[in-house]
Amino acid sequence: VQLVQSGAELRNPGASVKVSCKASGYTFTSYYIDWVRQAPGQGLEWMGRIDPVDGHTKYAQKFQGRVTFTADTSTTTAYVELSSLKPEDTGVYYCNAWDGDYLDYWGRGTQVTVSS
Fewer CB within 10 Å, N side or C side of the chain? Predict the structure, then answer.
């Protein structure tokens, strides 16, 4: 199983960023994709989840209205897009494939830096 994430991004405050997570080695629709971020010096923060089967999403309340998850089954790639970026959105963004039970796999993370 591999989850390959896109490269580091630098954005100005107020801009948007879209991070990808290319999945391989398993049936894409058999695992949820969670997005988790870690700000500098902070713990992991769950952003939400998408079910690639039907695109159903669940967003953490903190990110409601600013975040969008999508999943393309034709390319087995999941995406997170975060808009209206603030400096405090700086951190490493991870995708996590979870089977709904006890199996999960992690991407290596994507550094997003928001700075003017």
Answer: C
